[in-house]
Amino acid sequence: MKRILGLTTAALMGASILAAPALAESKMDLSGDAGATTTMPDVDTGTTAAIGGNFESALTAIGAGSSNAQAIGTLSEVDTVKVVSVSDLEGHDQAALDQAVSQNSDSVDELRTSIGANAALSEELRSQGVDTSAVVAAQIEADGQVTVYVM
Fold first, then answer.
1. Cα separation of 92 and 96, whole Å?
2. Which end of the chain is more exposed for a tag (fewer CB within 10 A), N or C?
3. Residue 47, Cα to own-chain centre: how many angstroms?
4. CB-based burial of residue 13 (10 Å sphere; 0-12 exposed, 13-18 middle, 19+ buried)?
């Protein structure tokens, strides 16, 4: 019994260490009173904020377009949308991007249709100045954030 409790405790402690970075992110309500002061947090765009933001991630998302389109079609609300310009990603290769989009054109079209049919997501993209015809891939992250890749 002591052995099982010890193993369980060790497993829970290990899992809590892995979950800590995810819990460190918090949502901010920026719509406060006119007299309120809101300070934006410092964003580390060079390292931790860019994790998973590489060209290979975009190519993988393009290849999974159909399944991502289905997942986006089931979203009822969208909390956070991150728009990523593929040309700004580390390791960007325009020829590889063009080939991936060409080979997956049906999936990309399905994704664009799915985004257009999702009122919450399409409105958020419009508010960020994104034309859905520029979208080449999208994915739903584990925390519910939608990452949209545009050309």
1. 8
2. N
3. 16
4. exposed
Q: Quick check: 92 and 100 in contact, CB under 8 A?
A: no
Residue 63 corresponds to which amino acid? G
Secondary structure string (H, E, C) spanning 53-104? CEHHHHHHHHHCHHHHHHHHHCCCCCCCEEEEEHHHCECCCHHHHHHHHHHC
- Mean of the pLDDT values across residues 143-148? 88
Long-range contacts: 70-73, Cβ < 8 Å, 24+?
70/114, 71/140, 72/111, 72/114, 72/115, 72/118, 72/121, 72/138, 72/140, 72/146, 73/114, 73/117, 73/118
Q: What is the number of H-type helices and E-type strands within the chain?
A: 6, 3
- Phi, psi (rounded to 5 degrees) for 148: -115, 125
3-state secondary structure of 147: strand
Per-residue pLDDT tens digits for 54-90: 888 888 888 887 888 888 888 888 888 999 999 888 8
pLDDT(109) > 90: yes
